[in-house]
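Researcher: Structure for this, please.
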Amino acid sequence: MELSEETQEFVESGTFPVAANLHDARVRLAADEVTLVVYGWHNVEPGTLSWVFPSLTAALNAARAMRNAVKWVVVRGKEMADLAGARESGAVLAESAA
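Model: Predicted structure, token format:
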């Protein structure tokens, strides 16, 4: 089975999409910004940090660039009150596999 370029990008990045499929994630993000929240680090512990990005792809590229970020999520919108609530409401679009 041949994977689309975007699906292959997820597989190679060590992340997994949480939306039912990548098409759903793109549709959900058509008009919304996303927030990358990093809550687990390797070798450093600056605490939980977050950044707003214009797209899921931009947030995933940023997460990949941060080599010390080992636990992170990308959520729909500009804020995330709590991770459990974001997961329950379906706001989590991607999450690190670590």
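Researcher: Any notable elements?
Model: Residues 41 and 89 are 25 Å apart (CA to CA). The mean pLDDT is 78.
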